[in-house]
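To whoever is on call:

I kicked off a structure prediction for a single chain this morning and the downstream step that reads the tokens threw a length-mismatch warning. I double-checked the sequence; it's 120 residues and nothing unusual in it as far as I can see. Pasting both halves so you can look.
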Amino acid sequence: MSEEAQSQAKAPENDKLPTEEQILEALKVVKDPEIPINVVDLGLIYGVKVNPNGIVDIDMTLTAIGCPVQDMIKADAELAVMRVPGVKGVNVDFVWSPPWTPAKMSEEGKKQLRMFGYNV
């Protein structure tokens, strides 16, 4: 195999597109400051789309419309996802339908919330 063919066969790691699972795992570092549970386990992530160009589109919601920390959560989500190899950009879109309820939480999120004294 020629040297050029070998270099093409070994695509750089950051040219691989990330998976939805990798994006969700990265988002687990993003926490709602009022409810110290990550946005994934809170059930705030409604959709993740990894586009062929490496741009990741995220549909998410918050526990309440008019949340005062919306901009901070958005910035934290963008920074967390940009750290994933292969991500070229991030678009976070807040959606309000369907509205968030505690029923959207993962079992892990409910367990954590119970540890804080909430009955879910």
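Update from on-call: the warning came from a stale cache, not from the record. Cleared it. Sanity check on the structure: Helices lie at 3-9, 20-27, 70-82, 107-115.
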